[in-house]
């Protein structure tokens, strides 16, 4: 099998893009001199910006419309890839596959557009990085016969982000030795979003019992959710920082300084894993297999009969009992054990 150029396609979502990052490292270890390109949405460019294992980053802004997509297809064709691995499996990625003219066109056996591909791989259950790694089986012989060591996500930042966090620490009077906790109470899906007041109760518990410096993080379109949540109670505390907006790489740099991450099943959880930071994650509709399998990553779930439903909407409407009836006192024992066993040693 003669191979010189690879193209990996993962347009979205942010969490899925982060979970695709180990694939480039695995490929580079087996093909040290080959070209390994990434195709993703322009909004995810920063995730790959400092990745040392890729050759080129190709981005596409879907807001630019049809003509921009045609130009993208032409660019892909001109690059003459030998193998294209489609992790996205959407109509858009399939068009890219067809345009590539690649000899090896790889995706999942479950794809509804499987006729556009000539190598189909079984989609296994479990941690998504392992599932994604299955697409490497046609090119790495050892993957067919040996158990796969579970790789972690790989997200890199620069001195710019490091210096940004240093400035923030000086502004807020934070010391590197403080008990720093990153907390992300947001998610675009209600079925994956623990109530805001439960997050605040957790934050005040951490402050009271561990003198923690709790730093909230949120996306550019999530400011209103944070502000509206803060208005529902008297949550102010000098150790609770709620007015700091960080981009993803700045958050990664902050996570290098933190003791652990607390949040929903969302992209920051995977970003924390990429920084070797212990995580405590609240799960609603989704399976805990999204969390990296390690004792350093605690998953809290109410364990209703309907969990995990993996649905976008709850069959009980806005009641969402798996989250709204899963209060702080329900997770407190496991959170304290996690801190004592994993975080403090």
List keywords for this structure.
13 helices; 2 domains; 6-stranded parallel sheet; 345 residues; single chain; 12 strands; alpha/beta
SSE diagram, text form:
Elements: E1 5-9, H1 14-30, E2 35-41, H2 45-48, E3 56-60, H3 66-79, E4 83-86, H4 91-100, E5 104-108, E6 119-121, H5 128-133, H6 142-145, H7 159-172, E7 180-184, H8 196-210, E8 213-216, H9 223-230, E9 240-241, H10 248-255, E10 260-264, H11 267-274, E11 279-283, E12 297-301, H12 321-324, H13 328-343
Parallel strand pairs: 1-2, 1-4, 2-3, 4-5, 5-6, 7-8, 7-10, 8-9, 10-11, 11-12
Helix pairs in contact: 1-11, 3-4, 7-10, 10-11
Structural overview:
The protein has 345 residues and is of the alpha/beta class. The chain has two domains: 5-145, Glycogen Phosphorylase B (Rossmann fold), CATH 3.40.50; 159-343, 3-Layer(aba) Sandwich (Rossmann fold), CATH 3.40.50. Helix content is 37%, strand content 16%. The chain has a six-stranded parallel beta sheet, sandwiched between helices. Strands 9-8-7-10-11-12 form a six-stranded parallel beta sheet, with helices on both faces. Strand 7, helix 8 (196-210) and strand 8 (213-216) form a beta-alpha-beta unit. It starts with a strand and ends with a helix. The mean pLDDT is 96.
């Amino acid at each position: 099998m003669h191979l010189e150029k690879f193209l990996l396609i993962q347009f979205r979502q942010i969490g899925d893009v982060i979970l695709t990052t180990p694939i480039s490292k695995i490929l580079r270890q087996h093909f040290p001199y080959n070209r390994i390109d990434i195709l993703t949405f322009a909004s995810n460019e920063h995730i790959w910006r400092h990745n040392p294992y890729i050759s080129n980053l190709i981005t596409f802004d879907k807001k630019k419309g049809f003509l921009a997509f045609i130009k993208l297809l032409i660019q892909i064709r001109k690059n003459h890839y030998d193998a294209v691995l489609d992790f996205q499996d959407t109509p858009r990625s399939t068009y890219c596959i067809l345009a590539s003219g690649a000899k090896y066109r790889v995706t999942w056996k479950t794809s509804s557009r499987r006729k556009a591909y000539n190598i189909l791989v079984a989609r296994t259950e479990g941690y998504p990085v392992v599932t994604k790694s299955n697409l490497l089986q046609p090119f790495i012989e050892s993957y067919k016969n040996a158990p796969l060591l579970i790789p972690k996500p790989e997200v890199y930042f620069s001195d710019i982000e490091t210096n940004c966090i240093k400035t923030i620490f000086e502004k807020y009077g934070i010391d590197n030795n403080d008990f720093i906790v990153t907390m992300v109470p947001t998610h675009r899906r209600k079925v994956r979003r623990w109530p805001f007041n439960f997050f605040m109760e957790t934050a005040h518990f951490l402050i009271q019992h561990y003198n923690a410096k709790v730093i909230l993080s949120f996306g550019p379109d999530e400011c209103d959710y944070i502000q509206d949540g803060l208005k529902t109670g008297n949550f102010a505390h000098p150790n609770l920082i709620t007015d700091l907006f960080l981009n993803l790489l700045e958050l990664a740099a902050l996570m290098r300084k933190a003791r652990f991450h607390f949040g929903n099943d969302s992209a920051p959880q995977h970003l924390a894993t990429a920084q070797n930071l212990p995580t405590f994650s609240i799960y609603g509709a989704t399976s805990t297999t999204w969390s990296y399998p390690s004792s350093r990553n605690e998953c809290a779930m109410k364990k209703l009969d309907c969990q995990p439903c993996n649905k976008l909407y709850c069959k009980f409407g806005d009641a969402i009992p798996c989250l709204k009836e899963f209060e702080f006192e329900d997770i407190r024992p496991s959170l304290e054990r996690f801190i004592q066993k994993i975080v403090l040693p």
